[in-house]
Amino acid sequence: MRKRIFEIIEVSKDKDRLSFLYDVTMLLAIIISIVPLAFKETYRAFYYIDVVTTILFIIDYMLRLVTADYKFKKKTAMAFLLYPFTFWAIIDLVSILPTITVLNSGFKLLRLFRVVKTFRIFRIFKAFRYSKSIRIIINVMKNSKEALLAVGTLAISYILISALIIFNVEPKSFKNFFDAIYWATISLTTVGYGDIYPVTNAGRIITMISSILGIAIVALPSGIITAGYLNEINKKNENINETVICKDSMKNEP
Question: Mean pLDDT, the chain, as a whole number?
Answer without folding.
Answer: 79
